[in-house]
Amino acid sequence: MRYSVSGNGREQSAFSRRTLLGGMAGAAAFGAVWPLGGLASATERKGRIKQSACFMCYKAYLARHNISFDQFAAACARMGLRSIEQTDPSQWPTLKKHGLICAMSTHHCGPKGLNRIKNHDECLAKLRQSIDVTSAAGFPNVITMSGFREGMDDEEGLANCVIALKALAPYAERKRVTVCLELLNSVHDHKDYMADSTKWCVELVHRVGSPRVKVLYDIYHAGMMKEDVLADIQHHSDCWAHYHTGGVPGRHEIDHTQTLDYAKLMRAIVATGFSGYVGQEFNPARPDALKSLEQAVTLCDV
Questions:
Q1: pTM (2 decimals)?
Q2: pLDDT tens-digit series, residues 191-226
Q3: What are phi and psi of 73, to 5 degrees?
Q4: Structural domain of residue 49, as residue ranges?
Protein backbone atom coordinates (compact mmCIF):
# COMPACT_ATOMS: atom_id res chain seq x y z
CA MET A 1 0.00 0.00 0.00
CA ARG A 2 1.35 3.42 -0.95
CA TYR A 3 0.70 6.60 0.91
CA SER A 4 -1.80 8.87 -0.79
CA VAL A 5 -3.67 12.04 0.03
CA SER A 6 -7.21 12.62 -1.14
CA GLY A 7 -8.34 15.93 -2.49
CA ASN A 8 -7.02 18.39 -5.03
CA GLY A 9 -3.43 19.42 -5.59
CA ARG A 10 -3.68 22.46 -3.30
CA GLU A 11 -4.82 20.26 -0.40
CA GLN A 12 -1.97 17.81 -1.06
CA SER A 13 0.61 20.61 -1.12
CA ALA A 14 -0.79 22.06 2.07
CA PHE A 15 -0.62 18.66 3.73
CA SER A 16 3.00 18.24 2.67
CA ARG A 17 3.93 21.60 4.15
CA ARG A 18 2.10 20.94 7.43
CA THR A 19 3.40 17.41 7.91
CA LEU A 20 6.94 17.73 6.66
CA LEU A 21 8.13 21.31 6.49
CA GLY A 22 6.60 22.10 9.86
CA GLY A 23 8.09 19.02 11.43
CA MET A 24 11.52 19.62 9.90
CA ALA A 25 11.76 23.25 10.90
CA GLY A 26 15.11 22.49 12.48
CA ALA A 27 16.60 21.41 9.15
CA ALA A 28 18.31 24.73 8.56
CA ALA A 29 20.26 24.26 11.75
CA PHE A 30 22.12 21.23 10.45
CA GLY A 31 22.35 21.95 6.73
CA ALA A 32 21.63 19.42 4.03
CA VAL A 33 18.77 17.13 4.95
CA TRP A 34 17.02 14.89 2.44
CA PRO A 35 15.65 17.46 -0.06
CA LEU A 36 12.23 18.54 1.09
CA GLY A 37 11.17 18.99 -2.50
CA GLY A 38 11.58 15.24 -2.86
CA LEU A 39 8.76 14.77 -0.37
CA ALA A 40 6.21 16.76 -2.33
CA SER A 41 4.54 13.69 -3.81
CA ALA A 42 4.73 9.94 -3.40
CA THR A 43 7.39 8.21 -5.48
CA GLU A 44 5.94 5.64 -7.85
CA ARG A 45 7.71 2.30 -7.53
CA LYS A 46 7.55 -0.92 -9.54
CA GLY A 47 6.64 -2.64 -6.27
CA ARG A 48 7.93 -6.10 -7.16
CA ILE A 49 10.03 -5.86 -3.98
CA LYS A 50 8.06 -4.76 -0.93
CA GLN A 51 10.54 -2.68 1.02
CA SER A 52 10.81 -1.85 4.72
CA ALA A 53 13.04 0.47 6.75
CA CYS A 54 14.54 -0.79 10.00
CA PHE A 55 13.75 1.87 12.57
CA MET A 56 16.80 1.26 14.75
CA CYS A 57 19.10 2.38 11.91
CA TYR A 58 17.53 5.86 11.92
CA LYS A 59 16.71 6.54 15.57
CA ALA A 60 19.91 8.45 16.28
CA TYR A 61 19.61 10.48 13.08
CA LEU A 62 16.01 11.43 13.80
CA ALA A 63 16.83 12.44 17.37
CA ARG A 64 19.85 14.44 16.27
CA HIS A 65 17.82 16.41 13.72
CA ASN A 66 14.61 16.72 15.72
CA ILE A 67 12.54 14.69 13.25
CA SER A 68 9.53 12.99 14.80
CA PHE A 69 8.49 9.41 14.11
CA ASP A 70 5.38 10.75 12.36
CA GLN A 71 7.55 12.79 10.00
CA PHE A 72 9.85 9.84 9.40
CA ALA A 73 6.86 7.62 8.58
CA ALA A 74 5.54 10.22 6.14
CA ALA A 75 8.95 10.42 4.45
CA CYS A 76 9.20 6.61 4.20
CA ALA A 77 5.73 6.35 2.68
CA ARG A 78 6.56 8.98 0.10
CA MET A 79 9.75 7.11 -0.87
CA GLY A 80 7.59 4.09 -1.70
CA LEU A 81 8.45 2.04 1.39
CA ARG A 82 5.65 -0.14 2.75
CA SER A 83 6.90 -0.78 6.28
CA ILE A 84 8.97 0.48 9.17
CA GLU A 85 9.97 -2.59 11.13
CA GLN A 86 11.24 -3.28 14.63
CA THR A 87 8.86 -0.65 15.93
CA ASP A 88 6.89 -0.69 19.16
CA PRO A 89 3.12 -1.33 19.13
CA SER A 90 2.65 2.20 20.46
CA GLN A 91 4.00 3.43 17.10
CA TRP A 92 1.76 1.25 14.97
CA PRO A 93 -1.17 3.70 14.77
CA THR A 94 1.26 6.17 13.19
CA LEU A 95 2.35 3.54 10.68
CA LYS A 96 -1.25 2.82 9.74
CA LYS A 97 -1.95 6.53 9.42
CA HIS A 98 0.63 6.64 6.64
CA GLY A 99 -0.40 3.38 4.98
CA LEU A 100 2.55 1.44 6.41
CA ILE A 101 2.93 -1.75 8.41
CA CYS A 102 5.53 -3.22 10.76
CA ALA A 103 6.89 -6.10 8.65
CA MET A 104 8.99 -7.54 11.50
CA SER A 105 7.99 -7.34 15.16
CA THR A 106 10.45 -7.81 18.00
CA HIS A 107 10.26 -10.54 20.64
CA HIS A 108 11.88 -8.86 23.69
CA CYS A 109 13.94 -11.90 24.69
CA GLY A 110 17.21 -9.97 24.69
CA PRO A 111 20.34 -12.13 24.31
CA LYS A 112 18.57 -15.28 25.44
CA GLY A 113 18.03 -17.78 22.65
CA LEU A 114 16.11 -20.93 21.90
CA ASN A 115 19.21 -23.15 21.79
CA ARG A 116 18.98 -23.71 25.56
CA ILE A 117 16.06 -25.60 27.06
CA LYS A 118 16.22 -23.46 30.21
CA ASN A 119 15.25 -20.40 28.13
CA HIS A 120 12.23 -21.99 26.45
CA ASP A 121 9.50 -21.08 28.93
CA GLU A 122 10.47 -17.42 29.07
CA CYS A 123 11.20 -16.99 25.38
CA LEU A 124 8.12 -18.84 24.18
CA ALA A 125 5.89 -16.83 26.51
CA LYS A 126 7.32 -13.59 25.13
CA LEU A 127 7.06 -14.84 21.57
CA ARG A 128 3.38 -15.69 22.08
CA GLN A 129 2.80 -12.17 23.41
CA SER A 130 4.49 -10.71 20.34
CA ILE A 131 2.51 -13.02 18.08
CA ASP A 132 -0.72 -11.87 19.75
CA VAL A 133 -0.16 -8.15 19.20
CA THR A 134 1.28 -8.70 15.73
CA SER A 135 -1.69 -10.81 14.69
CA ALA A 136 -4.16 -8.32 16.12
CA ALA A 137 -2.53 -5.58 14.04
CA GLY A 138 -2.64 -7.71 10.90
CA PHE A 139 1.14 -7.74 10.53
CA PRO A 140 3.11 -10.73 9.21
CA ASN A 141 6.27 -11.60 11.18
CA VAL A 142 7.94 -11.89 14.59
CA ILE A 143 11.70 -12.22 14.99
CA THR A 144 13.57 -14.64 17.23
CA MET A 145 17.18 -15.71 17.82
CA SER A 146 19.10 -18.95 18.22
CA GLY A 147 21.32 -17.73 21.05
CA PHE A 148 25.08 -18.13 21.46
CA ARG A 149 27.15 -21.30 21.47
CA GLU A 150 29.10 -20.75 24.71
CA GLY A 151 30.64 -24.17 24.16
CA MET A 152 27.44 -25.88 23.02
CA ASP A 153 27.60 -28.19 20.01
CA ASP A 154 25.73 -26.88 16.96
CA GLU A 155 23.67 -30.06 16.63
CA GLU A 156 22.51 -29.86 20.25
CA GLY A 157 21.57 -26.22 19.82
CA LEU A 158 19.75 -26.98 16.58
CA ALA A 159 17.78 -29.80 18.21
CA ASN A 160 16.80 -27.51 21.10
CA CYS A 161 15.67 -24.74 18.75
CA VAL A 162 13.59 -27.26 16.81
CA ILE A 163 11.90 -28.42 20.04
CA ALA A 164 10.96 -24.84 20.92
CA LEU A 165 9.76 -23.86 17.46
CA LYS A 166 7.76 -27.05 16.95
CA ALA A 167 5.96 -26.27 20.21
CA LEU A 168 5.30 -22.70 19.04
CA ALA A 169 4.38 -23.48 15.43
CA PRO A 170 0.69 -24.44 15.96
CA TYR A 171 0.09 -21.18 17.84
CA ALA A 172 1.77 -19.15 15.08
CA GLU A 173 -0.26 -21.01 12.47
CA ARG A 174 -3.53 -20.22 14.23
CA LYS A 175 -2.57 -16.57 14.54
CA ARG A 176 -1.25 -16.38 10.95
CA VAL A 177 2.08 -14.91 12.02
CA THR A 178 5.44 -16.23 10.82
CA VAL A 179 8.22 -16.68 13.38
CA CYS A 180 11.54 -15.78 11.76
CA LEU A 181 14.81 -16.92 13.30
CA GLU A 182 17.56 -14.58 12.16
CA LEU A 183 20.83 -15.61 10.55
CA LEU A 184 23.62 -13.45 12.02
CA ASN A 185 27.38 -13.47 11.49
CA SER A 186 29.54 -14.85 14.29
CA VAL A 187 32.85 -13.41 13.08
CA HIS A 188 32.35 -9.70 13.70
CA ASP A 189 29.03 -8.34 14.97
CA HIS A 190 27.69 -11.26 17.02
CA LYS A 191 30.64 -13.40 17.94
CA ASP A 192 29.75 -16.97 18.93
CA TYR A 193 26.16 -16.68 17.61
CA MET A 194 24.89 -20.13 16.66
CA ALA A 195 22.60 -19.59 13.64
CA ASP A 196 25.44 -18.27 11.49
CA SER A 197 25.22 -20.51 8.42
CA THR A 198 22.81 -21.26 5.61
CA LYS A 199 23.15 -25.00 6.25
CA TRP A 200 22.13 -24.69 9.93
CA CYS A 201 19.19 -22.39 9.15
CA VAL A 202 17.87 -24.49 6.26
CA GLU A 203 18.04 -27.62 8.42
CA LEU A 204 16.07 -25.83 11.15
CA VAL A 205 13.24 -24.93 8.79
CA HIS A 206 13.08 -28.43 7.32
CA ARG A 207 13.01 -30.13 10.73
CA VAL A 208 10.28 -27.89 12.13
CA GLY A 209 8.20 -28.33 8.99
CA SER A 210 5.76 -25.46 9.51
CA PRO A 211 4.84 -22.74 7.01
CA ARG A 212 4.89 -20.33 9.96
CA VAL A 213 8.50 -21.01 11.03
CA LYS A 214 11.09 -19.62 8.65
CA VAL A 215 14.35 -17.66 8.65
CA LEU A 216 15.14 -13.98 8.41
CA TYR A 217 17.92 -14.16 5.83
CA ASP A 218 20.19 -11.21 6.53
CA ILE A 219 22.22 -10.63 3.37
CA TYR A 220 24.88 -8.60 5.18
CA HIS A 221 25.43 -11.24 7.85
CA ALA A 222 25.44 -14.06 5.29
CA GLY A 223 27.97 -12.12 3.23
CA MET A 224 30.18 -11.64 6.26
CA MET A 225 30.09 -15.42 6.77
CA LYS A 226 31.18 -15.79 3.12
CA GLU A 227 28.00 -17.63 2.17
CA ASP A 228 27.05 -17.69 -1.51
CA VAL A 229 24.22 -15.20 -1.15
CA LEU A 230 22.96 -15.44 -4.72
CA ALA A 231 22.83 -19.26 -4.56
CA ASP A 232 21.15 -19.12 -1.14
CA ILE A 233 18.41 -16.92 -2.58
CA GLN A 234 17.97 -19.10 -5.64
CA HIS A 235 18.07 -22.53 -3.96
CA HIS A 236 16.58 -22.00 -0.50
CA SER A 237 13.88 -19.39 -1.06
CA ASP A 238 11.33 -21.67 0.60
CA CYS A 239 13.19 -21.19 3.89
CA TRP A 240 13.37 -17.39 3.87
CA ALA A 241 10.40 -15.31 5.04
CA HIS A 242 12.16 -11.95 5.20
CA TYR A 243 15.41 -10.37 4.00
CA HIS A 244 17.68 -7.68 5.44
CA THR A 245 20.21 -5.59 3.55
CA GLY A 246 23.56 -4.08 4.49
CA GLY A 247 26.79 -3.25 2.68
CA VAL A 248 29.52 -5.91 2.89
CA PRO A 249 31.76 -5.12 4.66
CA GLY A 250 30.83 -2.32 7.07
CA ARG A 251 27.04 -2.64 7.03
CA HIS A 252 26.70 0.79 5.50
CA GLU A 253 25.11 1.97 2.23
CA ILE A 254 24.41 -0.79 -0.30
CA ASP A 255 25.79 1.00 -3.36
CA HIS A 256 29.18 0.94 -5.16
CA THR A 257 31.01 1.49 -1.86
CA GLN A 258 30.66 -2.22 -0.96
CA THR A 259 31.02 -5.62 -2.62
CA LEU A 260 27.54 -7.03 -3.29
CA ASP A 261 25.46 -6.37 -6.40
CA TYR A 262 22.17 -5.63 -4.68
CA ALA A 263 20.23 -4.99 -7.87
CA LYS A 264 21.19 -8.48 -9.07
CA LEU A 265 20.24 -9.99 -5.72
CA MET A 266 16.85 -8.25 -5.78
CA ARG A 267 16.18 -9.56 -9.29
CA ALA A 268 16.99 -13.06 -8.01
CA ILE A 269 14.56 -12.57 -5.10
CA VAL A 270 11.82 -11.50 -7.52
CA ALA A 271 12.52 -14.53 -9.71
CA THR A 272 11.80 -16.88 -6.78
CA GLY A 273 8.27 -15.48 -6.47
CA PHE A 274 9.01 -14.05 -3.02
CA SER A 275 6.04 -12.14 -1.60
CA GLY A 276 7.49 -11.00 1.73
CA TYR A 277 9.47 -7.90 2.66
CA VAL A 278 13.04 -6.74 2.24
CA GLY A 279 14.18 -4.62 5.19
CA GLN A 280 16.79 -1.91 4.63
CA GLU A 281 18.98 -2.52 7.69
CA PHE A 282 22.20 -0.78 6.72
CA ASN A 283 23.63 1.88 9.02
CA PRO A 284 23.93 5.09 6.98
CA ALA A 285 27.48 6.42 7.01
CA ARG A 286 26.66 9.66 5.19
CA PRO A 287 25.32 12.78 6.91
CA ASP A 288 21.93 12.59 5.19
CA ALA A 289 20.54 9.23 6.28
CA LEU A 290 17.21 9.76 4.52
CA LYS A 291 18.94 10.39 1.22
CA SER A 292 20.88 7.15 1.70
CA LEU A 293 17.63 5.34 2.41
CA GLU A 294 15.99 6.77 -0.71
CA GLN A 295 19.00 5.68 -2.77
CA ALA A 296 18.74 2.12 -1.40
CA VAL A 297 15.00 1.96 -2.06
CA THR A 298 15.56 3.05 -5.67
CA LEU A 299 18.41 0.54 -6.13
CA CYS A 300 16.25 -2.35 -4.86
CA ASP A 301 13.18 -1.38 -6.87
CA VAL A 302 13.93 -3.78 -9.72
A1: 0.87
A2: 999 999 999 999 999 999 999 999 999 999 999 999
A3: -60, -40
A4: 9-23+39-300
